[in-house]
Design a protein that fits this description.
Elements (H helix, E strand, L loop, with lengths): L1 E6 L7 H4 L8 E2 L2 E2 H10 L5 E6 L3 H9 L1 H5 L1 E5 L4 E5 L7 E6 L6 H7 L10 E5 L2 E3 L3 H11 L3 E6 L7 E5 L2 E6 L9 E8 L17 H8 L3 E6 L3 E3 L3 H12 L10
Parallel strand pairs: 1-4, 1-8, 4-7, 10-14
Antiparallel strand pairs: 2-3, 5-6, 8-13, 9-15, 10-13, 11-12
Length: 257
């Protein structure tokens, strides 16, 4: 199965980082968050990726073109113009990088890579800026079982602020960033039939708008509920949170060995 990853947006809410590089190339623990997402999928046997590039997409292409240099020790013999890569750390990945335009919306990016998905019975689809310990294998099995066109991961958003524990006006303690009010939201990890692409009009179609709404209206959208860890990286604060989890060795999304 293939996984399509959106990696072309401007990332304006984390402009402290994205004025230099696309959001999926912002590093967590010295590796781009895109790498973390791919490792998540690879841990579930999904090794074939189609990456929708846009803003500063050449940096993503350069990263994979020089992947061994990023991941291994290297010796440069300047006199003889030779390079030796030591202890090559290869991933079992096939990576297709597609320029889907700088101004293209999320649905339009998916439509632009349709030719790479036409022979697939189903494929995974996600954003290049969030991590989770969602059981992708179970979600794929759930999708195949229900037979509808689309599966969306339903998650409860993390709390942004700590809450006071109170008895009347007396504060008895604090709850550290409790989760949301119980409502579920789009977690951004999809499994789709290629037929979903036919619902996308063109470059200016947002996936979250017309296509997803239409799938729901026509009874073709099923929810796979995930009550574990889920965290987007929309702001510098959220980037720092993910960095702290990784450095501490308590990164819940690290489901690989």
């Amino acid at each position: 199965m293939k996984a399509v990853i959106l990696a072309g947006g401007l990332g304006t809410r984390i402009s402290e980082e994205t004025h230099l590089r696309p959001k999926p190339m912002i590093e967590i623990g010295g590796k781009p968050i895109l790498w973390h997402i791919m490792k998540m999928y690879s841990a579930h046997g999904v090794h074939d990726f189609v990456i929708c590039c846009g803003y500063k997409g050449y940096l993503i292409k350069e990263y994979f073109a020089n992947y061994f240099l990023h991941m291994s020790d290297v010796t440069f013999d300047m006199e003889h113009n030779q390079m030796e890569v030591h202890q090559r750390k290869a991933e079992p990945w096939r990576v297709t990088l597609v320029d889907t335009g700088e101004e293209t919306l999320t649905g339009g990016r998916l439509k632009r890579v349709a030719e790479y998905l036409k022979d697939e019975e189903a494929f995974c689809f996600t954003y290049g800026d969030g991590v989770s310990d969602v059981d992708i294998s179970r979600e794929i099995a759930f999708h195949k079982q229900h037979g509808k066109w689309a599966t969306i991961t339903a998650v409860q958003p993390p709390g942004r602020y700590g809450a006071l524990q109170m008895a009347g006006a007396v504060v008895s303690g604090f709850t550290e960033k409790p989760r949301g009010d119980g409502g579920l939201i789009n977690g951004g990890f999809f499994v789709l039939s290629p037929r979903c692409i036919d619902l996308i009009a063109g470059d200016q179609t947002s996936w979250e708008g017309g296509p997803l709404t239409r799938l729901a209206a026509e009874g073709q959208l099923m929810a796979f509920e995930h009550d574990g860890f889920w965290q987007p990286m929309d702001t510098l604060r959220e980037k720092n949170l993910l960095e702290e989890l990784w450095v501490s060795g308590r990164a819940p999304w690290k489901v690989w060995q």
